[in-house]
Write a structure and sequence with these properties.
Strand order of the largest sheet: 1-2
Largest sheet: 2 strands, antiparallel
CATH architecture: Orthogonal Bundle
Structural class: alpha+beta
Number of helices: 8
CATH class: Mainly Alpha
Number of domains: 1
Order of helices and strands: HHEEHHHEEHHEEH
Shape: globular
CATH topology: Jann2411-like fold
Number of strands: 6
Helix content: 40-55%
Oligomer: single chain
Length: 202
């Protein structure tokens, strides 16, 4: 069982959101879509390396994938997640990209001996050029998107100036991060109440 980083670890590494139960969600949130143009949190080799290091406990071993392949998978996952939240069709190319990424490095189970006991081990098949990290994330996205109960928990942050997605496993959760987006909205509402006719902040 993987140990996911929490949101405080993500913040320390410079990411405004993170620590979701799935790496696929954390990856989709590395693109802030409410800015113009969208803000890519993996825009430098340094930020990219920090993000993969943060996720390393939840992924198989392997080299950091090419940034173009990462962005392509991210766009595909984000389109599927946004389509669900917005009630719109998914782009066919998004499905193709997720499936191709998962298929490029398929997973198989292996039986190995440890001392005198049997143990199960996973093997990601990268011999045909696939990347195990991206394949694991694509597989995770497929599992989420086909689990209607879990997919029903998918939410977008209630702050209109935030594009982050999360799984609302706590039904009262409205914000990606309560002490950031929740506080911003509460401050804006307070300002509007105490300064009639003024311009609120978000």
């Amino acid at each position: 069982m993987s140990i996911r980083p929490d949101v405080s670890e993500a913040h320390r590494e410079g990411f405004p959101m993170g620590g979701e139960p799935l790496v696929a969600l954390d990856l989709s949130d590395t693109l802030i879509t409410v800015t113009e143009p969208p803000t890519d949190l993996l825009s430098t080799p340094e930020s990219e390396a920090r993000w993969w290091a943060l996720q390393s406990r939840s992924l198989p071993e392997g080299p950091i994938p090419d940034i173009r392949a990462t962005r392509r998978l991210r766009a595909a996952i984000r389109d599927c997640l946004d389509a669900h939240v917005e009630g719109r069709p998914v782009r066919p190319t998004s499905l193709e990209d997720i499936n191709a990424t998962a298929a490029a490095a398929p997973l198989s189970q292996r039986l190995v001996m440890t001392g005198d006991a049997f143990r199960e081990e996973e093997r990601w098949h990268t011999e045909y050029g696939g990347n195990a990290l991206l394949a694991a994330i694509a597989t995770e996205a497929i599992t989420l998107l086909t689990d209607q109960n879990r997919l029903g928990l998918l939410r977008r942050c209630a702050n209109p100036n935030c594009s982050m997605l999360f799984l609302g496993e706590n039904k009262r959760r409205k914000w990606c991060v309560s002490n950031i987006c929740g506080n911003r909205v509460r401050v804006a509402r307070h300002y509007e109440r105490t300064h009639p006719g003024g311009i609120g902040i978000a």
